[in-house]
Amino acid sequence: MISLLLRGMALLPSAWIEVLVMLQVYLLATVYVVKELLFEATNQGVKKRLENDIRKSSAIRSARNKSVLVTGADGTIGREVVKKLLRYDFTVHALVGDRKKAKEMFSSLNGSQMPLTLYEVDFEDPHELVNNIESHMCVNVVSQALLLHLLDPIMTSDTRVTALSSSTAWVAFFTSAVFQQDPLSYYIGPYEAYCFSKLVLSTYIEELARHRSPSFSALLVLHTTLRDDQVTGAYYEDGVPKALCSRLSEKDKMCIFKSVQRQVEEWARLED
After folding, report:
1. With contact defined as beta carbons under 8 Å apart, do 215 and 78 qualify?
2. Of 12-16, 20-24, 64-68, 108-112, which one has max mean pLDDT?
């Protein structure tokens, strides 16, 4: 059904594809608002259960000896993640857009006594237009992949990586031809660009895991990250792994992985 829809959309002009994706995004948003309300209504005490699961995890038992790097730490979910990590006794390194504002934001949490270090970083600068890479791809995909590449020397077998994707990836439009050419430069419109970048991010993380093999939203993020039964490389919604990338063939997944890796290696050379 989905493949037929994608084939049909491929016959339309780019402007119509963008409109259809936009409509699907708003429809998806409505569905997920209802879904979240039902999820909380039918799971009374879910916050307490998630907290209990986190506190029972092996990661929490050694929290004082562990460090966590949080990107987008001054965002709505990011700052809540930082606050909860500090409460769990982790040492936190936080990437923020404005260090001064972030210091004020976290000043109520015990000031300079906190095991918190802030780093001012702008993922859009200075490589936003390098090799004509689409800006959503720069921020949502390649910058994240580059960060993992740079951190690789200090990662251990116990290191865990959690990337925040988006359910809008479900409505991203694509054809195999896009992956065979240059998926990082693909652009139809802002809605499609955002959705597609999130699909590429989820696929890249899944492939990366395979290659490496050996408030409430923040709670779900940490529950997914710290849980003992975490599925490596999986995409989670409300704590449940979903087959988001099943829409793509193995060949398409590999094309995405190689495209991102090529760009990461090029950016890494620029950093040296």
Report:
1. no
2. 64-68
Is residue 237 within a helix (H) or strand (E), and if so which, with residue range? strand 235-237
Q: Is 213 left (phi over 0), alpha (psi -120 to 50) or beta?
A: left
Angle between helices 190-212 and 143-151 (to 10 degrees): 20
* Cα–Cα distance for residue pair 19/189, rounded to 1 Å: 9
Express each pLDDT in 2-58 by its tens digit. 555 666 676 678 888 888 889 988 888 888 878 877 877 777 677 888 889 899 998
Q: What is the DSSP string of 163-199?
A: ----GGGGG----HHHHHS-GGG--S-HHHHHHHHHH
Kindly report, residue by residue over 221-265, the tens digit of the pLDDT.
787 788 887 777 677 766 667 766 677 888 888 888 889 988 888
CA–CA separation, 52 and 55 (whole Å):
5
Helix (H, G, I), strand (E, B) or coil at 95: strand
Higher pLDDT pick, 103 / 246: 103
Q: Which residues contact 53 (CB under 8 A, 6 or more apart)?
A: 223, 227
CA 204 to chain CA mean position, Å = 10
Fold of the domain built from segment(s) 57-121: Rossmann fold (3.40.50)
The residue extents of the domains of the chain are 1-52, 57-121, 218-271
Show the tokens assigned to 87: 């409460």
